[in-house]
Design goal:
elongated
């Protein structure tokens, strides 16, 4: 469970870092807009960040991307609020525990695409700022 919780936290933290830098209402609208959006996203949970990420990312298939984001949020909500209520999961039997592990493994794999996307963008943005600072541009 800890691995999945950390994965959802990594996704949420990455989105909070990236959105003010990549969203049209943030970095391209000036310092005040950037600061306003940065403060706004810090207060949001994954569900609230989903809409902002959808606005900031150009996807080849926007409907599919939007559906995937919604499914990740639903998966996170089910994890937090209903993990032990999933079909077949029980803490009272070996089969129930195996079902819990299978559920958690499948959920972790399902979120991997979004985690990789956000991680890659974080690396690119970080690299950009490091290279810019090394060139003395501000």
């Amino acid at each position: 469970m800890g691995r999945n919780l950390l994965r959802f936290q990594q996704i949420e933290s990455g989105m909070k870092l990236l959105l003010p830098l990549t969203h049209p209402d943030g970095s391209t609208s000036g310092d005040d807009a950037y600061e306003t959006l940065r403060n706004e996203v810090q207060l949001k949970t994954l569900g609230g960040l989903r809409t902002r990420l959808h606005e900031a990312v150009s996807a080849d298939d926007p409907e599919r991307f939007s559906s995937y984001l919604s499914n990740v949020v639903d998966s996170r909500n089910n994890f937090i609020h209903h993990s032990l209520q999933q079909p077949g999961i029980s803490l009272a039997s070996q089969d129930g525990l195996r079902a819990a592990i299978s559920y958690l493994d499948a959920q972790y794999e399902f979120t991997d695409s979004l985690f990789v996307l956000i991680s890659n963008i974080v690396v690119k943005v970080t690299t950009f700022f490091i290279e810019r600072d090394n060139l003395g541009e501000f």
